[in-house]
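Q: How do we represent a protein-ligand complex in a form that can be generated token by token?
A: Start from the inputs.
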Amino acid sequence: MKIICIGRNYANHAKEMKAAIPKVPMFFMKPDTALLPKRTPFYYPNFTNDLHFECEIVIRICKLGKNIDAKFAHEYYQEFSLGIDFTARDLQAQCKEKGHPWEIAKAFEYSAPLAEKFLNKKDYNLNQLKFSLVKNGEIVQEGNTKDMLFSIDKLISYTSQFMTLKIGDLIFTGTPEGVGPVHIGDHLEGYIENQKLLDLKIK
Ligand code: ZN
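Then emit the structure tokens for the protein with zinc ion bound:
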């Protein structure tokens, strides 16, 4: 399986990164080794001094497809959840400066912790879904899928032009504003609406 991550899908996050608001979706990838296995702690990587959280709605592809028309994209996912796109912001800045790919900053081991539980889209309004990240008891990110620049259906349609989407593939749909650093000892909790789905301690 593969993990596709959408960059700059919320205007206010693009602004806080001093990046242009994209006219077409922008994506990068993480390998399956970026998932944090169950009951494995997250250890702060030794190659960065500026690890940032990015809390994101994640959808799981349930049907094989390529060149999917946006009007049929809803058939290609049933479930969604919450994940963190951990980013070594210092390495990412160096990559951007040199015009290099982002993998060392984004695709490293365990850089994509994902909630164990997935929710069924039938039970929610995915076009207006609130989600949030709490760090050490304080809300640091609050997002709403209504603010996405490109809807989930558009993301599926766009990415499937370039690669076949397979059952089990994940799409991290982009982070809202409020990204920030974590430190050893921090406690992160992720919520969709009022339901806690993620609980992670940084060791
Ligand atoms: Zn992200």
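Residues 5, 54, 56, 85, 172, 174-175 surround zinc ion (CB under 6 Å). Residues 66 and 81 are 23 Å apart (CA to CA).
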